[in-house]
Amino acid sequence: LLIAALLMAAGCRERPSAVIGIAMGSDLVGNRTMLSARQERYNNSVDARHKVELRIARDTVQAGNTLGWANELVNTPGLIGVVGHESSRYALQAAPVYEAREVVEIVPTGTSRKLATVSPWTFPLVASDSSQGKLLADRIVASGRKRVTLLVQDDEYGRGIVMAMRAVLDRSDVQVLENVVHTPRSDFALLVRSILAHSPAPDALVLITQGGIAIDVARNAWRQDSTLMIIGSDATISGATTLRALAPGPDRLALATYWVPDSSDALTQEFFRDYREAQLEGEPQWHHAALYDAVGLLNAAIKETGGGSMDVRRFMLSLGRNRAAYRGVLGEIDFTGEHAIPARLIRPTATGWEPVK
Amino acid sequence: VSGTPARNDAITATGSQATIDSDTGELAAPKRRTLRGTMFAATVLVVLYGLSFPTIVLSRLLPAAQRLEQETTATNTAFQTLREQGNVFQGAVTLARRLNENRIADTAGIPRLIADTVEALRGMSVLEYNAVADQMRDAFAGLVSKTDEFTAKLDEAGRAYRLGEDSVYHARIRTALDSVSGIAQSLDEAQRHGLGDLLDRQARINAASAELQAWTIGWLLVGGVLIWFLVSLTRRRLIDPLDRLERGLTQLSSGDLEARIRRATTNWDAWPTCSIARVKCCVVVLRSRGDLRRRGNCWQTLRTR
Questions:
Q1: Contacts of residue B132 in chain A, CB cutoff 8 Å?
Q2: Which of B141, B145, B152 sits opposite A181 (nearest CB)?
Q3: Closest CA to A152 of A104, A211, A206, A94
């Protein structure tokens, strides 16, 4: 009787049956606010069995300590999936931890091609760096610029895009002057001086780096040579607003993105509303939408399957095969590898951005 | 058998059960295990026994051994890569120290020397993160980022030198050298954890070996029992009847027309009880210490069964 009473008492507590871990380093507070609103809406729409709790990796774990975050999350009771990690390198480093504990890892912003094969439990949300590298290289060739320097983040993300770009540029008449590799703590003023002092000087600069660094480099570079064309990879998008303000002309800047908002779409409107209510700074960018979709995808999997890790993994694999693709803010999402969300180029206009034709 | 048995009643006939057919009312012969059935059961047992060990090996031990082998290979590769990286890194540190102490005579060649070293550092063989053993992973991740930082500073030193920015050049060389102790520490840590991983693996290999030994002993014991059973079966169901037949036929051929060939009388239903009684008897004999009366009683009891 005592056991029965205890069991009944445990059953009476309204407790979410599943937990989704969030392991995204930047803007923890903002992300938490934006996702909380959405999660509350989801939890109100389902019965107690399908309720989902979001567990955001503690920011007390040292920044960049990917494995610390991963180990913290996998020890959370009820964890069935993780959204993260922020960069390709971190996601690759954490993948074996999630695989060992059979936890689905949805990587919203990592683009390294290695993510597709690192573990059967890892699911990159968007197309890999192969397609993005080709897109950036094609843009250089089409622009008529002949001397290009690549400023590259020293990790799997940067190396992947460079490899794909070189495959196109080495067959064209564009000369790659330098491949300048950097880390987050590099002296960017020195690097820009060195890049522009090269003889012959570059007429185009490709930034395969994060938004903050891109702003720093672009400001220095355009100050010395305003004719320079700068093309940024998808990671530079977090600095899009400032880069647009800095650009000497609309034809001097192009950025890669995995999302061009369609404001007539109901899902996008809902996302915009959550974004505004979270009072996040700046315009919503593709990485916000990707994070939003990754959580939505796991919610949908839990709602449909009940929340076992293996069932959630099967759900992901079935998308686009025997189940319709998941419809998110970024577009139709599946993991067949045939309809990956593609990278697109945008350039500044007087009021915002427009796709590069 | 006497009297008229009622329908569906069971009657006892020579120790076996005979039944009345419910439709015809005729007395049915007692069910008895046929030789063919017994031999079939024995064959099934032998096949099951024969397959059991390979099944255990294939389903339990082989996958574990393969995984262990893969992991050990991965750790060995990690060690090898770390050694190679250590060598390249050592060369780069030596160069940085010489540059810091202005011990390079050919100053015009400095940019090329730095560029080559940076290229060697960036061209080092890279380990995939999922190929690194669990215990090494943390230290390995730290090592990668620290080495990248060292390389970036050395690269910046080369660029500053080309730009003629002497103070920046020296500052970057010093920064690069400052990070050396951290890298060496991470390298040691990765190797220490790798060693721990190998020792752990060694323990698992020993455990797997002990498990295999236990399974083998168990399998052999079961095999022994099975052989005893089969020998006993062959003796009772084949050799003894043939022996009796031979003796009877010999008697008949020698003119003894009264000779009788006895059929086997083993009561298979009572056989397990009988076997247990036999074992008990053996125990009694062993413990009787020459008490012939106790021994006699025991065998007498057995015979009556």
A1: 96
A2: B152
A3: A206
Q: Tell me, what's the ipTM?
A: 0.78
Of A119, A123, A72, which Cα lies nearest the Cα of A293?
A123
User: Could you tell me the two tokens for A131?
Assistant: 């397609």
Rounded Cα gap, residues A50 and A44, in angstroms: 10
* Closest to A232 measured CA to CA, from A167, A156, A141, A152: A152
Cα–Cα distances (Å) from B8 to A90, B20, B27, B28, in that order, read: 80, 6, 10, 11
Q: Is the dihedral of CA A234, A235, A237, A243 positive or negative?
A: negative
Cβ neighbours around B69 below 10 Å, total: 12
Angle at the Cα of A266 from the Cα atoms of A334 and A233, rounded to 5 degrees: 55
Q: What's the rounded Cα separation, in Å, for the pair A71 and A54?
A: 16
User: pLDDT (tens digit, 9 = 90+) per residue, A180-214?
Assistant: 999 989 999 999 999 999 999 999 999 999 999 99
Helices B271-287 and B292-304, interaxial angle, to 10°? 180
Give this prediction's pTM.
0.73
Tell me the angle at which helices B134-162 and A66-74 cross, rounded to the nearest 10 degrees. 160
Q: What are phi and psi of A171, to 5 degrees?
A: -95, 0
Contact B130 A99 (CB under 8 A): yes
